[in-house]
Write a structure and sequence with these properties.
Largest sheet: 9 strands, mixed
Strand content: 25-35%
Low-confidence stretches: none
Helix content: 25-40%
CATH superfamily of the largest domain: Glycosidases
Number of domains: 2
Structural class: alpha/beta
Number of helices: 10
Strand order of the largest sheet: 2-1-20-17-16-15-3-18-19
CATH architecture of the largest domain: Alpha-Beta Barrel
Order of helices and strands: EEEEHHEHEHEHEHHEHEHEEEEHEEEEEE
Mean pLDDT: 97
């Protein structure tokens, strides 16, 4: 059975089941199930303090509506991944850390702040999903007293004298979240280590990141009860990922501790860089760890959906294994954000009116996450169509999924086929389409 789902600029269709069969086509796309690539880990979003605080400003009915929209396996996006920040990030209400100044033994380590909004929201999401959510934990900055600029914001670097203390900090964080029965499956060394921001940030050169992993974080994690927690390097944009990874994973000792590379979408759509990284280190993973629409809320915009779909197709075609969006929900301003770095989110909450708005990006993500299941494998597509973006997968139950994007202003016709069927159809102009083939 073939099903055709569509979201388009022209009209009101949002992930709608439609009939687009046609008699004539202008090219073929063939799915080759015999050639498979990476295994898909899943999809998710970030449980920032801003997102969880905003969610708690809504009525209980709307809180449930948002969480079901993301985490319900049947009616929602079926998210199974999440991201949390270690200490504050820009999408926090202010700068904060978990210890008192100069407590190098971390005796005062306390995540009580995360128990106010973040952890209860994760637990509520897990209840809706009916299972655990795999969490990636990322620091934006060490405590100010550990840094060369004595400030959690504006870059600065981790002082070498605190390398071991900071490595121990990750273990304490994992321990505290584990005590809440939450699964930190991976940690990244540093969010965006090449960026000096007006918000929480910390610089690492490639060599500094390599040496911190090799001599401190890797050994500390390995000797702890959490040796199976993966270490993610880079956690930044695609543009210079190859050069960074060559240094960080080029060291055999450092590489042994590294699970994989984290990617953001800002600055660059050089998707091919991911394949270069994969070819250099094929036993390591590639995970998309952050992306959002910058510059505040974009209610009603469709190019946001197109950016999501184009980036997801591009990354998955180049060995990305999963997609973690940025904030799950933001308020009517695109915050709160303690330095005014307002952004968009797939779901926007008007906290003044207690209403929820679903952006086009929400539906774009659903074209992937509602159909591509954890454990799916990307499969080869052979295409005569150069004017369509597309990527295909085979799920664990052997059903197939192909996502096709038409960014042009012209309807495109295509004959889609595999060994079991032929499906001639129209891919409408400015649309995102998912076609499923059930066995």
């Amino acid at each position: 059975m073939v099903k055709h789902y569509e979201t388009s600029l022209y009209g009101t269709l949002r992930h709608a089941l439609v009939n687009r069969k046609t008699q004539t086509t202008s090219g073929k796309i063939t799915l080759n199930n015999d050639k498979a690539y990476q295994t898909i880990l899943g999809f998710g979003g970030a449980f920032t303090e801003a997102a969880t605080y905003t969610l708690n400003k809504l009525s209980k009915a709307n809180q449930d509506k948002v969480l079901k929209a993301y985490f319900d396996i049947d009616s929602g996006l079926g998210y199974n991944l999440g991201r949390v920040h270690i200490n504050s990030c820009d999408f926090s209400l202010e700068n904060y850390s978990y210890v008192e100044p100069y407590d190098t033994e971390l005796k005062t380590f306390d995540i009580a702040r995360e128990k106010q909004w973040v952890i209860p929201t994760i637990k509520a999401a897990e209840k809706i999903r009916g299972g655990e959510i795999l969490l990636l934990a990322s620091p934006w900055s060490p405590p100010a007293w550990m840094k060369t600029n004595n400030d959690m914001n504006h870059g600065g670097k981790l002082k070498p004298s605190y390398y071991q203390t900071w490595a121990d900090y990750y273990v304490h964080f994992i321990e505290k979240f584990s005590a809440e029965d939450l699964n930190i499956f991976a940690i990244s060394v540093q969010n965006e280590p090449a960026a000096v921001q007006t918000w929480d940030s910390c610089e690492y050169s490639a060599k500094e990141e390599r040496d911190f992993v090799k001599d401190y974080l890797g050994p500390t994690l390995t000797s702890s009860p959490y040796k199976d927690v993966g270490i993610v390097i880079w956690d930044h944009n695609r543009d210079i990922v190859v050069d960074r990874v060559k240094v960080t994973m080029g060291d055999e000792k450092a590489r042994a501790y590294i699970w994989g590379t984290g990617i953001h979408w800002y600055v660059s759509e050089a998707f091919e860089n991911l394949t270069t990284v994969h070819n250099l280190y094929p036993d390591k993973h590639i995970l998309f760890t952050e992306g959002c629409i910058e510059g505040g809320v974009k209610l009603g915009a469709f190019d946001t959906a197109e950016r999501y779909a184009r980036n997801m197709i591009g990354d998955f075609n180049n060995y990305c294994e999963g997609y973690i969006d940025w904030n799950l929900v933001l308020n009517e301003m695109g915050g709160p954000n303690h330095v005014g770095n307002y952004c968009d989110a797939p779901i926007i909450a008007d906290t003044k009116r207690d209403t929820v708005h679903f952006n086009s990006s929400y539906y774009a993500i659903g074209h992937f996450s509602k159909h591509i299941k954890p454990g799916a494998k990307r499969i080869e597509t052979i295409s005569e169509k150069t004017d369509l973006h597309h990527v295909a997968f085979c799920n664990p139950d052997q059903s197939k999924v192909i996502v096709i994007q038409n960014e042009s202003e012209t309807d495109q016709t295509v004959e889609l086929s595999d060994k079991t069927m032929t499906y001639p159809c129209v891919i409408k102009k400015r649309s995102i389409v998912t076609i499923t083939i059930e066995v």
